[in-house]
Amino acid sequence: MLNIIGIGLSHKNITEEIKEIVKKSDYAYFENYTSKYNISVNELEILLDKKLIVANRSLVENSNEILENSKTENVSLLIIGDIFMATTHTAIYLEAKKLNIDIKLIHNVSILNLVSDSGLSLYNFGKITSIPFNNENIEEPFKIFEENKKMNLHTLFLLDLDPENDKYMTINQALNYLLRKVKDEEYAIACSALGTDNQEIRYDKMKNLINLKFDKYPQCIVIPGKLHFIEQEILETIKNEK
């Protein structure tokens, strides 16, 4: 049995059902390389009353251990956010299907729905893009932004991260990248630690945002497209908040 479980972006997203499933598991893997959780592994183990196997990129992408154990044992794979945010997790699901392993899927909140805390309608988002660490010659985010802009759609920029080495791209670094080709008068939304008690959302011109300090993680940026009057009103409220 393989339980593929989304644990959201905060420990408050962990339901009693999740706790019960994990506690009964013979093996519980915690995938910790695609995002940053709001509590430590030790705190998560205490919350779940279960010893966790921290699964790095290599263990998850080469999923033989997880799949082999799932053939005869009750296995849980804990994923930060929702379960199918990364193609790696979808690949595990497909392999388990091919091996006729029983699967239980538990979804949870992710950046893709929590970004609506910015006041923007999820209906009005275009294609999502990511800004990698080594981005000197990377043009794809600009291309996607321009495509979305032509259709009056919002663009969500996910920022690179390497939790295993405690390395996270900052909003300021991402803005430096974007300002190579995006006008500094363009408005953007800077989001930090969405879905947690430390959540922070700022809305301003990019030239103003780049001078602010953002020290909560993970972080992302949205450049809005055409705004509905309700979206505009909410963003103006956010802009005026101190």
Question: Could you please describe the fold and organization of this structure?
Answer:
By secondary structure, this protein is of the alpha/beta class. The protein folds into two domains: 2-109, Cobalt-precorrin-4 Transmethylase, domain 1, CATH 3.40.1010; 112-240, Methyltransferase, Cobalt-precorrin-4 Transmethylase, Domain 2 (2-Layer Sandwich), CATH 3.30.950. The protein contains ten helices and twelve strands. The protein has a five-stranded parallel sheet, sandwiched between helices. Strands 6-7-12-10-11 form a five-stranded mixed sheet. The chain has a two-stranded antiparallel sheet with strand order 8-9. β8 and β9 (167-168) form a beta hairpin. The N and C termini lie far apart (49 Å).
How many structural domains in the coordinates?
Answer: 2
Number of helices: 10
CATH topology of the largest domain, by name, is Methyltransferase, Cobalt-precorrin-4 Transmethylase, Domain 2
The CATH architecture of the largest domain would be 2-Layer Sandwich
Record keyword descriptors for this entry.
242 residues, 33% helix, elongated, 2 domains, 12 strands, alpha/beta
Quick gist of this model?
This protein is α/β, with parallel strands linked by helices and 242 residues long.
Secondary structure: elements and pairs:
Layout: E1 2-6, H1 16-23, E2 27-31, H2 41-48, E3 53-55, H3 57-61, H4 64-72, E4 75-79, H5 87-98, E5 103-106, H6 111-114, E6 129-131, H7 140-150, E7 155-159, E8 161-162, E9 167-168, H8 171-178, E10 187-192, E11 200-205, H9 206-209, E12 219-223, H10 229-240
Parallel strand pairs: 1-4, 1-5, 2-3, 2-4, 6-7
Antiparallel strand pairs: 7-12, 8-9, 10-11, 10-12
